[in-house]
C-alpha cells in the first residue's frame, strides 16, 4: 500500500517515526507539518489519537491538540476527567476547563498511556456537601461544565436529592424544586418550583415521569437513587395540560381527527346544514354557520435549488414556510455542513424540484459538495474531484493540493529511471513534477491512485542526450622505407675498375706503357684524372681531380677515417 505525503513526512522524522510506523491512518499533511513545527528537537511522540473532528498526540512532555485553532500544548501531568470507557476506550481529559475525549490510537488502544500521563480530576460534587450524596450514589455523571453550572445555581443550603436524564440534557431534584440543565454545548439552567406539574406518572420500561415546565413537557428517567420516579411524584401534582399554541409544522389534534375520520366529518357537516335549513323554515332566523377556522394551507411547487450556491439556496428557501431547512453532504464522506458555508454547491434536494407539497409539514434538505468537487453521480455516492494540472509545480505544493482534494494515495517515481522514490529515503519536497497520472481535468473519485514522476531541483524534465565520445584518430600505418636510388658516381663496395687511359705519344709499346703509367701517376697527384665522383674513395689525401661533369674535386679525410672525393673550392 502506497504511503501518503503525511506518512512519509512523519515516518522519516526521528521524533515521530516510531509511533507513526504503527499507525495505519495518520494526520493530514497540513496537520503533520504543524505538529513537526511545535515539537521540540528531542521531544518524542508516543502515540497518536483522535479528538472530535481533530487529532492529538502524546509526547513525553505534553499532550498536543491538533484542531482548527492550531496546535495547543497541555503540559503533563494531565487531568483525567474520566478514565478509559466505552467500546472505543475513550479517555476524557480536562483542557482549560473543558472535557476533551481521546481515542483511536493503535499504540495506546486501551488508553493506559494517557491514564499514566495524568491524574484523576478532583470531583467538585463529591467535595461539596450539597451534592456529596448524589455524587456517590448516582450512576449519571454530569459533564464538567454542567457541574460548575449546577454548583453556581444551587442555594447555600439547597441539597440535591437525585439526578435524571432529560433528552439531551439533565434534571436535578432538590429540596426546593427541579433544576433543568440544558444544551450540551453551552449549558443553561432553568428552575421549576415545587409542587411540580406532573403530566404523566411513571410509565414504560424506564419508568419515565413527564413533567410540565413553562408549557413544555420534559421526560425524566434514569436516576439510580429514584429508579421508579417516586421522589418526583411525591413533590408534584398531576395536571391536565391545556391547549397549547401549535408549533410550526405540527397539526392540531382536531385537524388530525378530521383527517382520519372523513366520513364522520362529512355526516356532521351535513347535519349542521340540515338543522340550519329547518330552523329557517320555522320562522326563526337561521343561525349563520360559524366562520371556519384557518383555511387549509395550499400546496406549492418545490423550487429548483440544484446547481445553486448553498448559502444562496438556503437563504432563498428560508423565504418559504418550510417546517425546517437542513443541509447535508451529498457524497459518501458525510462531512459536516453549515447552511451559511460559502464555496459549496447544491447537488440534490428533497423534496425534488417541481414536486407539489405543503411546506409547513415538510423539511427541505439540500445536499451539497464543495465547489471544487464535481457532484457525485448519485446521492451519497463517492466524491468526485477534477484532477488539477500539477506539471511544473513543486512537490511540497502539490502534496497540499492533493491532500485538500482527498487524494491521499500517491506514488512517486524518478523521471529518468522510473524507479520509486519512496525506497530511496530522499525527501522530494523541492522536486518538480514532470508527468502525472491521471491527466489534468480528469474526473476521479476521492481516494484514487495518483502517480507522479519527479525530477530533482535544477534538472530538466527531458533527459539530455548523452554526448558521443570523440572518435580517436586512426594510427597511421608506417610507410615502407623507400630504397635509396643509386646516385651517379656514388661509392659502391666494389672497387672501381680503372678505366683504360689513352696513350699519348709515339713511343714503343713498353715505352709508351711505361710513359703512360708515369703520366697516370703524375696526373693523379697533379692535375688528376677526369671522371671521378664525389663521395668515392680516393687516395692519397690532398689529391685533386675532375668530375665527369667538369667540376673540380679534391680528396679529403672524412670523420669516419676514410678518404673520399669532395668539391674542391680552391
UniProtKB/TrEMBL annotation:
Residue segments, region Disordered: 1-23, 454-570
| InterPro entries linked | PASTA_dom
Output the superkingdom of the source species. Answer: Bacteria
Compositional bias, Pro residues, is annotated for: 463-477
Q: Where is the composition biased (Gly residues)?
A: 504-534
User: What Gene3D superfamilies is this protein classified in?
Assistant: 3.30.10.20
- Which residues does the UniProt record annotate as the domain PASTA? 381-456
Write one Pfam family the protein is assigned to.
PASTA
Q: Output this protein's name.
A: PASTA domain-containing protein
- Species this protein is from: Streptomyces tagetis
| Phylogenetic classification of the source organism | Bacteria, Bacillati, Actinomycetota, Actinomycetes, Kitasatosporales
Amino acid at each position: 500500500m502506497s504511503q501518503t505525503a503525511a506518512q512519509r513526512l512523519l515516518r522519516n522524522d526521528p521524533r515521530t517515526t516510531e509511533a507513526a510506523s504503527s499507525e495505519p491512518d495518520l494526520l493530514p499533511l497540513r496537520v503533520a507539518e504543524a505538529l513537526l513545527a511545535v515539537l521540540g528537537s528531542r521531544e518524542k511522540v508516543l502515540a497518536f489519537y483522535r479528538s472530535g473532528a481533530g487529532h492529538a498526540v502524546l509526547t513525553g512532555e505534553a499532550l498536543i491538540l491538533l484542531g482548527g485553532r492550531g496546535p495547543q500544548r497541555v503540559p503533563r501531568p494531565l487531568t483525567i476527567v474520566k478514565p478509559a470507557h466505552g467500546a472505543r476506550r475513550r479517555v476524557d481529559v480536562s483542557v482549560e476547563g473543558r472535557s476533551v475525549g481521546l481515542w483511536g490510537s493503535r499504540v495506546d488502544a486501551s488508553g493506559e498511556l494517557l491514564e499514566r500521563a495524568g491524574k484523576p480530576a478532583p470531583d467538585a460534587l463529591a467535595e461539596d456537601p450539597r451534592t456529596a450524596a448524589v455524587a456517590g450514589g448516582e450512576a449519571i455523571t454530569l459533564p464538567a461544565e454542567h457541574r460548575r453550572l449546577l454548583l453556581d445555581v444551587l442555594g447555600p443550603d439547597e441539597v440535591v436529592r437525585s439526578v435524571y436524564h432529560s433528552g439531551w440534557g439533565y434534571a436535578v431534584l432538590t429540596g426546593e424544586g427541579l433544576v433543568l440543565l440544558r444544551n450540551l454545548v453551552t449549558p443553561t439552567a432553568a428552575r421549576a418550583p415545587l409542587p411540580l406539574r406532573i403530566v404523566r406518572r411513571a410509565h414504560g420500561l424506564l419508568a419515565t415521569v413527564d413533567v410540565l415546565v413553562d408549557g413544555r413537557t420534559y421526560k425524566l428517567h434514569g436516576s439510580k437513587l429514584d429508579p421508579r420516579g417516586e421522589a418526583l411524584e411525591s413533590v408534584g401534582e398531576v395536571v391536565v395540560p391545556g391547549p397549547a399554541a401549535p408549533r410550526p409544522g405540527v397539526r392540531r389534534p382536531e385537524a388530525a381527527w378530521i383527517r382520519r375520520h372523513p366520513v364522520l366529518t362529512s355526516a356532521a357537516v351535513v347535519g349542521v346544514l340540515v338543522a340550519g335549513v329547518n330552523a329557517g323554515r320555522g320562522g326563526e332566523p337561521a343561525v349563520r354557520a360559524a366562520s371556519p377556522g384557518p383555511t387549509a394551507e395550499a400546496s406549492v411547487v418545490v423550487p429548483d435549488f440544484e446547481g445553486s450556491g448553498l448559502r444562496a439556496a438556503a437563504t432563498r428557501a428560508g423565504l418559504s414556510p418550510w417546517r425546517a431547512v437542513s443541509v447535508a453532504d451529498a457524497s459518501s464522506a458525510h462531512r459536516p455542513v453549515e447552511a451559511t458555508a460559502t464555496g459549496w454547491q447544491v447537488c440534490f434536494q428533497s423534496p425534488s424540484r417541481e414536486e407539489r407539497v405543503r411546506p409547513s409539514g415538510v423539511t427541505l434538505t439540500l445536499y451539497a459538495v464543495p465547489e471544487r468537487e464535481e457532484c457525485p453521480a448519485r446521492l451519497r455516492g463517492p466524491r468526485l474531484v477534477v484532477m488539477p494540472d500539477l506539471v511544473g509545480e513543486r512537490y511540497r505544493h502539490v502534496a497540499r493540493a492533493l491532500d485538500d482534494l482527498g487524494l491521499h494515495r500517491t506514488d512517486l517515481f524518478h523521471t529518468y529511471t522510473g524507479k520509486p522514490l519512496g525506497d530511496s529515503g530522499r525527501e522530494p519536497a523541492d522536486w518538480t513534477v514532470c508527468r502525472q497520472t491521471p491527466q489534468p481535468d480528469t474526473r476521479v473519485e476521492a481516494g484514487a491512485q495518483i502517480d507522479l514522476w519527479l525530477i530533482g531541483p535544477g534538472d530538466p524534465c527531458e533527459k539530455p542526450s548523452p554526448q558521443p565520445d570523440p572518435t580517436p584518430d586512426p594510427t597511421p600505418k608506417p610507410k615502407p622505407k623507400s630504397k635509396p636510388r643509386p646516385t651517379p658516381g656514388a661509392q659502391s663496395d666494389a672497387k672501381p675498375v680503372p678505366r683504360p687511359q689513352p696513350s699519348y705519344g709515339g713511343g714503343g709499346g713498353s715505352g709508351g706503357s711505361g710513359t703512360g703509367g708515369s703520366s697516370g701517376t703524375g696526373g693523379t697527384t697533379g692535375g688528376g684524372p677526369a671522371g671521378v665522383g664525389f663521395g668515392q674513395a680516393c687516395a692519397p689525401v690532398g689529391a685533386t681531380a675532375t668530375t665527369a661533369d667538369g667540376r673540380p674535386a679534391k680528396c679529403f679525410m672524412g670523420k669516419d677515417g676514410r678518404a673520399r672525393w669532395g668539391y674542391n673550392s680552391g
